[in-house]
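User: Predict the structure for this protein chain, please.
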Amino acid sequence: MGLAISKSLKTLLMASKDKPTVTKIHALMILTGIFGHGNSNSKLIQSYSRLGHIECARQVFDKSPQCGVAAWNAMIIAYSRRGAKTEALSLYLRMESEGIRPDSSTYTVVLKACARSSDLRNGEGIWRQAVDHGYGDDVFVGTAALNLYSKCGKMEKAMRVFDKMGRRDLVCCTTMITGLARNGQAREAVAIYRKMRNNGMEGDEVVMLGLIQACTTLGNLKMGLSIHGFMIRRDDITMDVFVQTSLVDMYAKNGRLEIASCVFRTMLYKNVISWGAMISGYAQNGFAGNALQLMVEMQSSGCKPDSASLVSVLLACSQVGFMKFGKSVHGYIVRRLLHFGCVSNTAVIDMYSKCGSLSSARKAFDQTSFRDSISWNAIIASYGTHGAGEEALSLFLQMRKTNMKPDHATFASLLSALSHSGLVEKGQYWFNVMVNEYKIQPSEKHYACMVDLLSRAGKVEEARELIDSMMIEPGIAVWVALLSGCCNHGKLLIGETAAKKVLELNPDDAGIYALVSNFFASAGRWDEVAEVRKIMKKTGMKKVPGCSVMEVKGKLHAFLMEDKSHHEYEEIMRVLEKLDYDMKAIGYVPETEFVLHDQEEEVKENLGIAMKQPSSSPKL
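Assistant: Here is the predicted structure, written as structure tokens:
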């Protein structure tokens, strides 16, 4: 009879949905003498904690005349689910000290608690104890250990645990696949999935999510398409918002925006991450107009953009010089008091700079309460882009006074700024400081800046000597910088070497081929000119016509080379002719080395002028 009553009360406990009901059952258990017998108190602890009353659960635990392993586990689980890792670990240690032997559930729960807080030290200690007590081959405990190592980024240790497991289930394999994908080991994630399939296990949506992330990292579109098709064919796999968003992200990062857009448009529910993935995809692939349009659509749908979406939109604004929209986004961030982290701040500075408003970029920098190295790098680079090398150097010196240690990116921004301003001696001085004082090994970007600095100043021989002294293999940026200097200063011998090195590296930029072609043309090497043209034709490469986009009174205007369709074309040409006359009068020489040599000089000059114009809002 007592056993039947006990079972009935336990059933009632698990069905209870509020505290008063559980309290009444608790009282009845005390009156009938059931409380403390068997695992009745563990069910009571579970019920209180399930309803959010962990204090009551602890009172039950503390007042129980005897607690078996089930009660200890129930209390540890309650703390773990609440995120109270310290209390969960404290109970586990007390449990051992009182001679209560932990079971599989105990180790699994405590390891999960450590994984949630990335507590590797305590987690590894508990895993060793589990192995010592014979739970090393337990699939649940093993999977919890895999999860711990995965969350802490220790995938080598996770792989050792996985390899030693005698039995592997779907959850175990899923943990490994998602962990490897999250930690950038995409190939290993795919290998685990193949082993899993060979053992007759089919993946669920969590596995597919990990594989999609792996394909994104690898840039393996073929496999991504295969996984997508597999999920469509499987009726038992739910294509939820997380899976669909990952698909959007994968296709966008592989440059297949038409498929990404198709998946995005068919989503029944879109969260802020879904919108952000599509906006970022457009912005990262150069489709700024689509990114801006989608942001407007996002807000119209009632979804509030997060910082990631806003950063993508700021990138789009900087690409097309749409400062009015960018300023609006900046204002939105300030008005909503959103977390203005270093990434958002850098994006704002970069946007104003690329839209031609250096003063606004500086104001955004000055208003930043916390300036990290990324913020300093952004403003130094901004001054460099605008040819203000002295100001960039002044900012760099201010940065040093704040005890902020400049990194490789800081020096890359500084050297680029000094290069654009022709400050050769200062560039050489700070390059040596970087190497000798800060012990930063120069990367290709640093060398490219120095070669550009020397080549622009006509010191092509010194630039070549620097290349010969490089500890790393010079890449295409270095050789292009040298070749450009040779073109400008008529250094044919060194230029020929640079041109051949550029061609050996098979560039995918038609502008670089134009530079090589023009160099050979200036030297009268017409056979080489024909060969370069042949390469361009064979690869289907064409010189993209010059295009300028500018903002006038809040609207974007695009101009393609030799395009006469703009409604104010005649007026624009009159202004351009006057600018051309005025600029030549003060000795301006257009840069035409990236324009093919057989175009008319007037077209080349106009394009050169267009390249020199800032992307701010001119008054026509």
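The beta strands are 547-552, 555-560.
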